[in-house]
Amino acid sequence: MPTTRRPKSRRHQLPISSGAMEEADDHRPSSSSGRPFLSGLCSAALRRKPLGAHASAEASREDLKRQLGVLDLVLLGIGASIGAGIFVVTGTVARDTGPGVTISFVLAGAACVLNALCYAELASRFPAVVGGAYLYSYTAINEITAFLVFTQLMVDYHIGAASIARSLASYLIQFLELLPFLKGHIPSWIGHGEEFFGGIVSINILAPILLILLTAILCYGVKESSAVNTFMTTLKIVIVIVVVFAGVFEVDVTNWSPFMPNGFKSVVTGATVVFFAYVGFDAVANSAEEAKTPQSDLPIGILGSLLACVLLYVAVCLVITGMVPHTLLGEDAPLAEAFSAKGLKFVTVLISIGAVAGLTTTLLVGLYVQTSYSVVSACAITLRWNDKATSRRSLGIMSIWQEGVLCLVIVALCGFIVGLCYRYNYAIAFMVVAFLIAIAASFALQFRQVYVDPPGFSCPGVPLVPVISVFFNMVLFAQLHEEAWYRFVILSLIAVGIYAGYGQYNAAPCSSDPSSIGYHEVPSEASIEMATL
Hints:
By secondary structure, this protein is mainly α. The chain is 64% helix and 1% strand. The protein has helices at 18-24, 37-45, 53-59, 70-81, 85-97, 101-125, 132-140, 143-176, 188-191, 206-220, 222-248, 263-274, 281-285, 294-323, 334-341, 345-371, 375-384, 400-423, 428-448, 464-478, 482-501, 524-531, and strands at 194-196, 201-203. The longest helix is centred in the N-terminal third of the chain and has 34 residues, at 143-176. The model is unreliable at 1-34, 387-398 and 512-533 (pLDDT under 50). It is found in: Membrane.
């Protein structure tokens, strides 16, 4: 009598939804399969997160209250990007770059616009799930990349929130001391910080109080916290506009000559410093779950907030470098000192109010993101790619997918090499060769891949725009100081250790159902091709 062989593992053959899979394996350690640790680690690290029907069901939940409109999202991005730094960092960088700091902000803004285009498409692809760059990396690349992105972002947001809280406390005390009856009567340990043990320990009572207060506002509700952010961001924008108009009448155009006193290299170095002044659009991408119509509103919020920030930063840079020669700009409060030198004392008061409002919104949005600029570009390419050619003919050892990854790696390495050559004054020939190789790789990626335009917002010029974004991100990354590289490498090693140790013994396996990848259905032709794989 013939017998039917039982498959070794039915769970890999049945078309189980990702939600059911995760529910069934919720408490099942990934190491229980009996595979060697190293092979299991590699398999888990390279897997991707499928998102399909289960996620779509979560997106259509009726109990999910969506409170944020387009204006709320734009103000959210502006509130996260523009803090007190617009009154401080602009002048600090201008001391080294001169009036060319304007070009630094334009270059950094242009690089961020390329990133934002990729962010906008990915936010349109995943319109109802929070996670931002972590989610995009998990879906498009693999789990270990997503975990590294998550680690870097969380450390950045946590340390940033702590430092911003201390700065906000200091600025708030400075503003209160403008009142005659409080001047000189506020203890230093309340806002400025009292140092002990040779400066190793510094006590600041007001900073944690402010953190608790803003956390309470967030816990009260998205609508209420959005109202606070809208008010503070609007106040901040109005103050910046007033400061710009007040400074326009004090501009001396002779201060703009020479425009780049230390050369274009200092301008590029300045762009790496001010690049992080535009990172607020990540907060918009993380607000997908609260957006009213995320598929259309998120791209507008991301791009709108970024362009508004570019205009505000450039306007402030032109005013501050035109009012005072860049060599005379102060280090701590350059903009306020510039207006004080012109006898405009009332503007310094406005700057203090704007600094408090700016730090408040930055801290509020930073805490909001915790609850829920190259990797994202690679995700945009990967998720737009339809490998239907692989079902028609064999490509030997290297598949189309592998060629695409190789092209992206080449572009990233070339961008990094160009940045290093530029930083250390290596021969211009190396820069030209690397740049040409990057261009060739981008064209190879263009002609070798087949892409499917997603519904909603579509990043123009794929894959050229993401490739250029990766290239310039790596150029800017190469300009960073060695200390930043050391911190990045050390943190990455710690993250990999945590992932390999604790994570692999407590993580549940992901679904391998190919039909659940992506929220939106691929066009019918592509669906047929995928079904034949």
